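Margin note: ligand = 26Q.
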Amino acid sequence: MSKRFDKEVFIESVKSNLKTLYRQTLVDATKQQVFQAVSYAVKDTIIDNWMETQKVYEEEDPKMVYYMSMEFLMGRALGNNMINLTEYKEVKEALEELGFDLNVIEDQEPDAALGNGGLGRLAACFLDSLATLGYAAYGCGIRYRYGMFKQKIENGYQIEVPDNWLKDGNPFELRRPEYAKEVKFGGYIRVEYDEATKRNKFIQEGYQSVRAIPFDIPIVGYNNNVVNTLRVWDAEAINDFQLDSFDKGDYQKAVEQENLARNIVEVLYPNDNHYAGKELRLKQQYFFISASVQAAVAKYKKNHSDIRKFYEKATFQLNDTHPTVAVAELMRILLDEEGLEWDEAWEVTTKTCAYTNHTIMAEALEKWPIELFSRLLPRIYQIIEEINRRFVEEIQKKYPGNQEKIRKMAIIYDGQVKMAHLAICAGYSVNGVAALHTEILKNQELKDFYEMMPEKFNNKTNGITQRRFLLHANPLLADWVTEHIGDEWITDLAQISKLKVYVDDEKAQQEFMNIKYQNKLRLAKYIREHNGIDVDPRSIFDVQVKRLHEYKRQLLNILHVMYLYNKIKDHPEMPFYPRTFIFGAKAAAGYRRAKLTIKLINSVADVINNDKSINGKLKVVFIEDYRVSNAEWIFAAADVSEQISTASKEASGTGNMKFMLNGAPTLGTMDGANVEIVQEVGEENAFIFGLSAQEVINYENNGGYNPMDYFNNDQDIRRVLMQLINGEYAPDDPERFRDIYDSLLNTNSSDRADTYFILADFKSYAEAQERVEKAYRDETGWARMAMMNTACSGKFTSDRTIQQYVDEIWHLDKVTVEA
Ligand code: 26Q
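Resulting structure:
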């Protein structure tokens, strides 16, 4: 399919890049320079396919999806691009001949961390699948100058360090000034009657504006010559004022516009599952949406004359509510610039926009104060007011006299603009991201909307790309799988179920577990180099890596570690299988309790790792700066996947799927996609514990949960909690962890004590952990279980997810691109 890789040509290209970029030869070049030179050589191949793909799109005019997202957590590009070009091994060999280790070269690349966690990484996996399946797609986002912060751990505390990911230049991006768009903020709207059209014209005046400049990043499909585009927008000042003729007002405005442009794309908000009502955040949202929608309309108009059929060629998928101003921006363009009537414009808009919900956490819901919203986006606000007026009318028609419905469903209410309500009202599809999550949306969170418009609601269980998270992340296992069942799993993960015939095969079991062991060695080396901690690769690697959030319950995990440590100290003779508890997590910079939890984990680690008396039976490791690139190694090395969120709180989870694919059974609650994982792999191949989602919801609705009961009646729990405040892990400041203790036992004004049911689930979790230990002692049993997890992971490819989006929501046309 793709052009044959020519080693000589490739090497020449690397050499010539070194020369033109850096005036360097191979012998003198730094590793960073070699990385750049190799990347430009790879980009060369990509560009041909990129142009060819865009030509096919021009000719065949397929319907396109615009995946609108504030976040794209791409990670590194070089390795992934080589994988998808099917040139990875060839390049590796070529570089070896030149005396370079490809792993070391790949390691020079900073992660493109333009996202927080699950939602951003999902967007990245979707782009990979869209290109691989041959669908025309644009990712639309922001080119943040600083992505997700780098995490340093100092004295056990998280320190945030700016992520200057562009400092050496990004070899894969392409600046496209010819597609720049102007985006306007603020000012006021002057209404003017237009005799010619007999309509009011709405003219924005006294505004500030910035120029949005697109940077295009290639998204390489696997072995199919398709290259799609991730388009991220940079902001530049518009300063066409004349130096000789400006008065004081012009000068002031010019400076303000410079600042606006600089600030707008400066940094990603590092909040995960938490809404911060910051003006700059709303500016970011409108900035990239206005530019993207303008570009999508312009692209359509190049080849089509009737804007009323826009939706036949374009669909906008809104990645959570963050891009929901797209609804009003599309309306604005259709009404004010294209001259459509309201009903015509509304039809186009509601056939174009679709919305994905990623959370039921109340604190993540976007509600903008009217004052802020209307000041920043005056015309957009007018349009939303009219959308709301008509929507409220509809509600009244359906539920006459029912004020309650209006209070609960209106888009504008109580001085706030509710973005989820706008997205549901204007979207033709509303989807959750796992079966359980979608059911909770329909029956609890969005019940009123579901009752009014049931046809909009649907489920799309998340997925992950096996190309990055197995083929690239775990080459040993990838090769082993291919040896046994062929390589079709790379683009058809359902094939991986063919491994089931090997789960009882002793040789296969040994090979599988030996690969796991090699990956554990690789991770142990990483931990030694980065944390200075020695871990025993024969111990159980029990891993929880994800954003730090109370609902994800890293606290439950570390409290259990404290409990185990107590047990080992009390009963040194007790048989105990060595365990290594591995954590990785960033806390939002302003999330006090999350940051204190990191300190707790590190304090417990300090005590336990330095206690010679326990003979290394227990180790605790906090991996600094958990991110996509080191995640790849971590998943490959995990024995146990910790997915222990309070049931009903984790919409889906996607890390759970990456562990499963790499042969790590889930230790988890019946939450999010865990439910479907258990369905696929069988209960006997997972370790499930804790309250069900319904039980949690019942407690939340009816009360009756009292964590003090557990404190009073269970001495193990009481002892662990007392250790939070007796200086056991904070001899220099015994009060350090008081807030965590209080959060579990003391009701404060806003929250019930132990909001996330940690004490309720503690015993059940500890028992599940005992089952893990017992299962791990049975070597064959464990090998079988691990292999079953890999073999049953077929459903969780993002290729399946994307195919469902295409079939049930987007209805895109498939394309093929010849080399
Ligand atoms: C909103 C307003 C202002 C500032 C920040 C935000 C904000 C930013 C990020 C709100 C939420 C997020 C991220 C949410 C997220 O990552 N959700 C996760 O989405 C995954 C993909 O669907 C799911 O697997 C996870 O369960 C869900 O938590």
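The chain has a mean pLDDT of 97.
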